[in-house]
Amino acid sequence: MEAMTNTIKGWIENPVKFARSHGVTLSPVSDVANPDEQTHILIVEGFLLYNYTPLLDVFNKCYYITIPYEECKRRRSTRQYTVPDPPGLFDGHVWPMYLKHRRAMEECSLHIDYLDGLKHKEEIYNQVYEDIQNNLLNRL
Q1: How far apart are CA 27 and CA 6, in angstroms?
Q2: Structure pTM?
Q3: Mapped to the 3 state alphabet, what secondary structure does 66-118 carry?
Q4: Which tens digit of pLDDT belongs to each residue from 107-127?
């Protein structure tokens, strides 16, 4: 997590330089003359991000996809792991740890938008995309 934090902070310091040094192709330069006025978006993904204190101050927008126990267990059971889950792992460890970390996340100071993981991926994408667009427009 410390390496991720350093990577994110490197991006925040200079998104253009960071992208180029990591082989990321940038969109064509906009009409904005001052590079400091350009808008750059970094998406950071991971289910424990909101439990890692050094990262909490760098997030502008937070989303968390939720699904109920039954659906989570069903999805987990359809995954193919090199070493299969031993019997009882989901109920004895995976789900209790999820609940523990989710409670801790809910107690942090971030405003988190919860998304319904039972919706289709396209619906979730469109919801987040629209929300980000609205946030950017409100900053103008």
Answers
A1: 24
A2: 0.82
A3: ECCHHHHHHHHHHCCCCCCCCCCHHHHHHHHHHHHHHHHHHHCCCCEEEEECC
A4: 988 899 999 999 999 999 999
